[in-house]
Amino acid sequence: MTDREQEIAEGLRLARLAVELGKDDAVALTRGGHALAHLAGDVEGAIALVDKALVLNPNLASAWFLGGFLRTENGDPDAAIELFARAMRFSPLDPEMFRMQAGVALSHLFAGRFDMASYWAEQSFKQLPSFLVLVAIIAASHALAGRAEQAHTAVEHLQKLNPEFRVSSLEGWIPIRRPEHLARFQDGLRQAGLPE
After folding, report:
1. Where are the beta strands (DSSP E) in the chain?
2. Taking each helix axis from N to C terminus, what angle separates 26-40 and 43-56, rounded to the nearest 10 degrees?
3. Assigned CATH for 97-196
4. How many helices (H) and strands (E) does the chain have?
5. For residue 18, which phi and psi values (nearest 5 degrees)?
6. pTM value?
7. Are the CB atoms for 99 and 66 separated by under 8 Å?
């Protein structure tokens, strides 16, 4: 962002407008809710919007996978994995499959299943190696699983993608609600060699 405060304010304005004008539109509720979670930190409100979207259109893969991210961020990784699995079944050739896989990886990371987190993250990486959060998940999950070499390689890639990214960047980047999940992710990044 070039003007973080102004851009967040504009993003919030547009997300609220989408939700207001699209109160009967599953896509508007899903995307607007997701934006509100990340820009305003209203994860629970966003979950309610996505749940309404799923009532309106239970076949909307994006609502299932974005609902999965929101539940992971809100502290329920096992419920999130179920939503991601449903999204993948609904749309097996989805161009956003890499996001679904990254969400499953993040959920397993938060649940302490580091081998599963690494597996899903590596699947996503094959599709989009420049996805920053994904590379951070790879670094943390390999480090926490005791695979120091792979973790360090991932941190090197992460720093090429964004030389400014630090362990301390994580807290304001993803709205992670459970302190133990944030601490686990940060600890993995520290072990992988990412600077504070």
Report:
1. none
2. 170
3. 1.25.40.10
4. 11, 0
5. -60, -45
6. 0.92
7. no
Question: Do 73 and 43 form a contact (C-beta atoms < 8 A)?
Answer: yes
Amino acid letter at 110?
Answer: F
- Please give the full DSSP string across 144-156, using - where no structure is assigned: HTT-HHHHHHHHH
Sole residue written with tokens 């609600």: 177
Alpha-carbon dihedral angle through residues 116, 119, 123, 128, given to the nearest 10 degrees: 90
Which residues, in sequence order, are CB contacts of 71 under 8 Å at separation 6+?
Answer: 47, 77, 79, 80, 83
Gap between the Cα atoms of 135 and 49, Å rounded: 29
Query: 123: how many CB neighbours lie within 10 A of its CB?
Result: 17
The rounded Cα 71 to chain-centroid distance in angstroms is 10
By the 8 A CB rule, do 163 and 127 touch?
A: no
Are the beta carbons of 171 and 187 closer than 8 angstroms? no
> pLDDT digit string (tens) for 57-101?
999 999 999 999 999 999 999 999 999 999 999 999 999 999 999
- Find, among 153, 149, 114, 148, the residue nearest to 135 by Cα: 153
Domain ranges of the chain: 97-196
Calpha distance 162→56 (Å, rounded): 39
pLDDT greater than 80 at residue 1: no
Report, as an integer, the average pLDDT of 112-134.
Answer: 96
Q: How far apart are CA 181 and CA 187, in angstroms?
A: 10
